[in-house]
Amino acid sequence: MATKHEQIIQHIMSLDVGSKISVRQVAKDLNVSEGTAYRAIKEAENIGIVSTIERVGTIRIERKKKENFERLTFAEVINIVDGQVLGGREGLHKTLNKFVIGAMQLDAMMRYTEAGSLLIVGNRVKAHELALKEGAAVLITGGFDTEEYIKHLADEKQLPIISTSYDSFTVATMINRAIYDQLIKKEIVLVGDICTPFEHVEFLTVGEKVENWYEVNERSTHSRFPVLDKKNQVVGMVTSKDIIGKDKNLPIEKAMTKNPIVVQSKTSLAYVAHMMVWEGIEVAPVVDESSILKGIISRQDVLKALQLIQRQPQIGETIDDIVKNTVESDEYEKDKFEAKVIPQMTNQLGTLSPGVFTSIVTEASSRLLRQLKKGELVVENITVYFIKPVNIDSLLTIKPKVIEAGRIYAKIDVEVFNMKKLVGKALLMAQIIDR
Q1: Which of 131, 345, 350, 382 fits 356 for a cystine, CB–CB 3.0-4.6 Å?
Q2: 305: which strand partners?
Q3: Which pLDDT tens digit goes with each residue over 264-297?
Q4: Arithmetic mean of pLDDT over the chain
């Protein structure tokens, strides 16, 4: 019979995607305490079937397959960008296929906006409307609101329209980071990916005798078994060493090793491998937070999985990486650099984001120091002056100049030009790390 914890998880999984879930309602429906309901809902969140959103509540979401881990739900996007839902709450469980930064003309923007995408845009009501009609959700940057009819349209289409105080560059960086964090997690092998599930595990129960070990041993040809109580909680492990020379009528709990080492489904393969070698064990029970047996993992399982892993997960390209790839040395002057302003670098107004400007200045300064063979740069203090806004597709010229460079510290003055006009300045105080 399933435990109360398992019954609650099964109840949550039976709910329609998008359903709201509350501790009080679950406790009432299943006749359990609110504490039990709360712990089970937290477990449901850990396994990816519900999501809790500030000012919205807890909702049932679609469990992502591991191969589609890079797809975020709109509910997750809200948490990432500290957003507020303006409309379309019924669509929070849906996943986005891609995001589009709306720092371009309306007709160009719509060419890239399609069903299942997320349009990141500022206070452009017509863009909000057209995106929703195309089947795309909308993320409004800069803390702006939208018109009431747009909110009603979002409710009708069941597509979220979200507001965040961050600018487009920061939002895109945050979403990029979240996607790549999830991709890394997808590549990490966990115990739950390779363990033998409960239904295929041989075990003994409290109250059985040593003679029962021989029966299970003959049937399964294994020699190590977990010992469970009436609630299927692991209370011990019994091996051939434990029963050698013992009376066959001896209760199994008298022969077993109590408080065995256990692992959980989300434990990493690397940790289990280290633990098995360090502790000298061959088999470990896999349990949930209540110590209920969920499966078992052996040293052979770990070795096979380690042989299949070809390489460690790699971090994908973030917007910081895009900035680094955009900054290039001038063909004729080695202490001068160029960078083109692309859509991902702009704010909600379609001009160069302050965050990107700082990244460009830092990257150019770092390259200058490397050229002078001074070492790597770690910025300790930076003062930035914006003189003129910089439009999308502008080609910037960055001229860093070393004012003073000692063995440990450097002061760098940076001027940034667009079409030979000064658009920004910066003064960096940086620490030099000898390569």
Answers
A1: 345
A2: none
A3: 988 888 788 888 888 888 899 999 888 899 999 9
A4: 84
Joined together, the tokens standing for residue 237 give 């492990």
Residue 314: predicted pLDDT: 43
Does the predicted model carry a pTM greater than 0.70?
no
The two three-digit tokens of residue 30, written as one number:
């299943």
Tokens 């849906």 belong to: 94
Of the chain, the percentage scoring pLDDT greater than 90 comes to: 34
Per-residue model confidence (pLDDT) at position 43: 79
- Rounded to whole angstroms, the Cα distance separating 40 from 60 reads 13
What domains lie within the chain, and their CATH numbers? 4-187 (3.40.1390.20), 191-308 (3.10.580.10), 319-433 (3.10.129.10)
What is the structure's pLDDT at 108?
77
Token pair listed for 282? 């061959």
